[in-house]
Amino acid sequence: MAAATGPLTGVRVVELAGIGPGPFAAMLLADLGADVVRVDRPGGAGIGVDPANDLTNRNKRSVLADLKTAAGTDAVLGLAERADILIEGNRPGVTERLGVGPDDCLARNPRLVYGRMTGWGQDGPLASRAGHDIGYIAITGALGMIGPEGGPPAVPANLLGDYAGGSLYLVVGVLAALQHARATGTGQVVDAAIVDGTAHLTAMIHSLLAAGAWQDRRGANLLDGGAPFYGTYETADGGWMAVGALEPRFYDEFARLLGLGEDAPGRSDPGRWHELRAAVAARFRTRTREEWTGVFAGSDACVAPVLSLREAPDHPHLAARGTFTAHGGITQPAPAPRFSATPGAVRTPPALPGADTRAVARDWDVPALGARTPPDTASATD
Question: Could you tell me the pLDDT band of residue 380, with boundaries at 50, 70 and 90?
């Protein structure tokens, strides 16, 4: 295991294996230097992804424990006793039934921060129901904001709910609770619900709505594609350009470089926005994405090419900053944010299930874990 250098070096985290926002939150903690031990179940999570390619498990170590057995429960409680943070993403009540719920773990370690990641939260009418990102963001109003006027809501992959409303709020929560635990000696439970985090993300939009500056429908507002100077346009070769020329001085530069004629409708009349959008769209269709990228290069017109996932790492700005990195033959996003004194790094490839059981049993002094390790799961770093 390469030496950790991030600001969370020395922080110990137990992650009960799951899918979605929990693993991503644990990856972020690991990227920042925490010693994250993922507790995998025998047989794996069953999501059909080769563990060697699962980047959400980078910078972690993995152990095997069957929580349906007393030995597995005892091993996890041993880890919890020595941890600063525990993260789990099961439905409410599951870890309690397995004997590793908050009461069980806090009884062994009163300073523990117990992070719970769910979609609906630990209580409420839907708490026990199955769900996914799309449903969580649907009921918060966030999904309903995204998409064209008169068209269906556009699904933003699982970035808005799982990762923004879920993972990032869980990380903020457990780190805040860790600060409290270190100051007072008292741990606590952090209930991170995707519906809560996603709703919280819409705070500014609710401000605009209350002020009468936001219409409660898609494609009719300044930031949802309703404004012709904030949206996407197709180019001659089938590519797309993103325009964000909100401020008048940026819009003036945009209009000049785009070559809008003097007879084009002004930006200040929403009643003619449809005409202005048509004029802008017609201009963009006259050149390719690469040509328009060159036209707007070095300007303050706030225009950028819409790149694919494979194209993004080669963008000159991202390449110069090292926003993406290659490790173990996989191009991947580099750790973020950045720290001047304690930088994070991609130290190890995705942890293979159970590969570090013996090493963790030794390093964390949890004999119950190492005593059950099959010979073929021993880590090469032992």
Answer: very low
